[in-house]
Specification:
With 249 residues, the protein is α+β, with helices and mostly antiparallel strands. It has helices spanning 3-14, 18-39, 47-58, 63-74, 106-119, 148-158, 179-188, 211-225, 241-248; strands at residues 83-90, 96-103, 123-125, 134-143, 162-165, 169-174, 193-202, 206-207, 230-235, 237-238. It has 3 domains: 10-74, Integrase, N-terminal zinc-binding domain (Arc Repressor Mutant, subunit A); 83-132 and 204-248, Alpha-Beta Plaits; 134-202, Alpha-Beta Plaits (2-Layer Sandwich). The chain is built from 9 helices and 10 strands. The two termini are 20 Å apart.
Length: 249
C-alpha cells in the first residue's frame, strides 16, 4: 500500500478539527455542485452525484446545504460557476503528484499551486507528464473487525478487484463505475463501510526512506490540501511505517 494512503488514513483517524471542518464542508459542497451541473440533479441517475452526496453526508454536511448545492449546480439557484482543472508535478524525492481543483478563477489557482510546489521543493509539470503513472479507481474503507476471507469473498462477488490491508482498516478496490454496486453489496453482506470514494491510485511507488525527505513530502501534501480550490491530492510516495509515525505525531 502506498505511503500516501497511509498518510490519508492517519489524518482520517485524527478526526476533523474544528478549524478544518468548514474548509472540508466547502470542498464537498463544490464537488456536489459540479457533479449536479455535469450530470443532472437526480442522485439515482447520476452516479457521480450519488457518490458525492454520500461522501458529504458521511462528513455531516447538513442535508439542506447539500440540496442547495445541487440546485445551484442544476441552475435552479444562482451561484458561482466552478471549473474542474487538474495540475501535475513532481515533489521532493522525485515523487509524482496530481492535484485536482475546482475553481472560479483558473489563473489564481494555477499561480497558487505553482507557488506551493516551488516553495516545497517541487515543480509543476506539463499535463500528462505524471498522470500515466496513476489509474482511477473506486475505493471503499471497511472496518478492521471484518474477517479477511469473508470480506474478500463478498467483495469479489460484488464486483471488486482487490482487497488491501491498511493495518487499521481494509480497503476494497474496484472499477470507478462499480463503486456504488460494490458498496451496496458489501453493506448487504453486513460489513461496516467507513467511506467510499473515487481516487487516483499509483501503479508503482517511490520509497522515501529519510525522515528529512519525508517531512518535505508531507509538507507539500499539507500545503496543497490546505488550498481552498484544491479538492484532492494524489501521489505515489511510499514512506515506511516507522518514519511515517515519527513525522506525523
Amino acid at each position: 500500500m502506498s505511503g500516501h494512503s497511509k498518510w490519508a488514513t492517519i489524518k482520517h483517524k485524527k478526526g476533523a478539527q474544528d478549524k478544518a471542518r468548514g474548509k472540508l464542508f466547502a470542498k464537498l459542497i463544490r464537488q456536489v455542485e459540479v457533479a449536479a451541473r455535469e450530470g443532472g440533479g437526480d442522485v439515482n441517475s447520476n452516479a457521480t452525484l450519488r457518490t458525492m452526496f454520500t461522501k458529504a453526508r458521511e462528513a455531516s454536511v447538513p442535508l439542506d446545504t447539500i440540496e442547495r448545492a445541487i440546485k445551484r449546480g442544476t441552475g435552479e439557484l444562482d451561484g458561482v460557476r466552478y471549473e474542474a482543472i487538474n495540475y501535475e508535478g513532481y515533489g521532493p524525492g522525485g515523487i509524482a503528484v496530481i492535484v485536482e481543483c475546482l475553481t472560479d478563477n483558473r489563473n489564481r489557482t494555477g499561480a497558487d499551486v505553482r507557488s506551493i510546489f516551488s516553495k516545497s521543493g517541487g515543480s509543476m509539470a506539463e499535463p500528462g507528464a505524471v498522470s500515466w503513472q496513476f489509474e482511477r479507481k473506486g475505493v471503499i474503507a471497511i472496518d478492521r473487525s471484518a474477517d479477511e476471507d469473508s470480506l474478500t469473498l463478498a467483495a469479489l462477488e460484488s464486483g471488486a478487484e482487490d482487497v488491501q490491508d491498511l493495518s487499521d482498516q481494509w480497503q476494497v478496490v474496484c472499477a470507478p463505475g462499480s463503486l456504488s454496486a460494490v458498496r451496496g453489496g458489501l453493506e448487504k453482506a453486513g460489513f461496516v463501510v467507513l467511506g467510499a470514494e473515487l481516487v487516483m491510485l499509483p501503479n508503482s511507488t517511490v520509497e522515501i526512506a529519510e525522515e528529512s525527505e519525508a517531512k518535505k513530502v508531507l509538507k507539500l501534501m499539507d500545503a496543497l490540501e490546505d488550498n481552498d480550490d484544491v479538492q484532492n491530492v494524489y501521489s505515489n510516495f511510499d514512506i515506511p511505517d516507522a518514519i511515517m509515525e515519527s513525522v506525523s505525531v
